[in-house]
Amino acid sequence: MQYQEFAQLTPNNTVYKLIGPVLVPQDQAEAKSNVDTRLEFIRGEIKRVEGQLKEIGTKTEKKKQELVEIQAEAQQQSQAQAPAPAAPAITA
């Protein structure tokens, strides 16, 4: 929003900076530079967080796959160790 407002400024406009309870005049070039710097910082943070999210997603998928493999392995072991069903006893 500030960036769009700066685009509409003319050299005759005055830019103010809020310092405590006082509005102090500020150079337009300095104000634009400050906003540009903040926007670059925000873009960098967005990139960093998106990278972290992607990395976490990749790790999550890996862990899900490992869990599926472990569950399949445990199921195979339990089936192999299950005793054979006993034959019914015949009484006469």
Automatic annotation (TrEMBL):
A Pfam family assignment: Prefoldin_2
Chain intervals for the UniProt region annotation (Disordered): 72-92
Q: Which GO terms describe its cellular component?
A: cytoplasm; prefoldin complex
For this UniProt entry, the molecular function terms from Gene Ontology, in alphabetical order, are:
protein-folding chaperone binding; unfolded protein binding
Keywords associated with the record: Chaperone
GO biological processes: chaperone-mediated protein complex assembly; protein folding
Against CDD domains, the record matches this protein to:
Prefoldin_6
- Belongs to which family? Belongs to the prefoldin subunit beta family.
Q: What is this protein called?
A: Prefoldin beta-like protein
Organism encoding this protein? Athelia psychrophila
